[in-house]
Amino acid sequence: MPLVIGYEEAKKNILKRNNQLAYFNFRDNPDLPHASLNGHAPGNYFSEAHFHQNDQFQVVTDGQFKIGRHELTPYCVHFTRAYTPYGPLVSDGPAFTFLVMRAHRDAGAQKMSRELDQLKRVPNRQPWQVSQAVKFPPLDSRPASADVLLQEVPEVRDDQGLAAYTLILKPNVKATAPDPSHGDGQYLVVVKGSFWHESKEHKAIGLVFVKPDEGAYLIHAGAQGLEALVLNFPLVKPRAVEVNAPTKVAGFKKWTCALCAFSYDEAVGMPEEGIAAGTRWEDVPESWNCPDCSASKSDFQMVEG
Question: Theoretical Cys-Cys bridge with 87: which of 39, 49, 108, 189, CB 3.0 to 4.6 Å?
Fold first, then answer.
């Protein structure tokens, strides 16, 4: 049976020690999902780079902050595979909130300052992450005749079932969500409006978790309609070895972070960080670090051509 909870119910589960709203928090069953809404007050915030032992989605619901050097705003989706370091998480101003969602209970953040050796010992690790800005189409651009508007977020996908969609329903409309059977579980994240489940209305921010064998969820919008994200976790199974292809520009090379798989291409450089196209690796400042996980230059390896 799908697990369903709305914001009003989640508010009763506040964890005061870290200002989290616990949506799903099954301490005694690692096969059940974990989800929380994390909130941080205005002012400087810093959480060092870390990793988790399970795949994870994060969705920004209010404010803005950075993961590494990536600016995240509502409703950015950040996905990380298990044992993929990311961060630090940084904010220097307004309050912000974000959802953290996993298909299985997790041991918590593994800080890089303490657990780097553990990370390097993990066999067959396939690190990968993606941060993608997600915008719902404005009202004036939505087809007037469409009661349901489902759009894929193409950048958030892989060949093992990872997928993300935006879903818009007009008031009181029912629709079937995408099939969850191809992955390791699915979250529906209602960020605006409300939905009905078993004669009870659940207001945003509301969550539904569907296991792969439970069939596609029939979602029923409330009186104001709804806007939601549909997030499919990939299957947990061995992956084929993924090779970062060498650069196609003769004479230039690529260098890949051994910790998180971020790639620096000499031919492209990183102009947004003041590193011009064509900058050789040896000419990249020694103070430069990985924009995804903050690893140093010494943690990069050349991709053979």
Answer: 49
Quick: pLDDT tens for 115-135. 999 999 999 999 999 999 999
Cα angle vertex 214, ends 202, 98, to 5°? 45
Q: For a pLDDT cut of 70, what percent of the chain falls above it?
A: 96
Question: Among candidates 30, 51, 29, 43, which has minimal Cα distance to 112?
Answer: 51
The pTM of this model reads 0.93
282 C-beta neighbours (distance < 10 Å), count: 8
CA 128 to chain centre: 11
Question: What does DSSP assign to residue 156?
Answer: S
The first and second tokens of residue 283, run together, are 């000419």
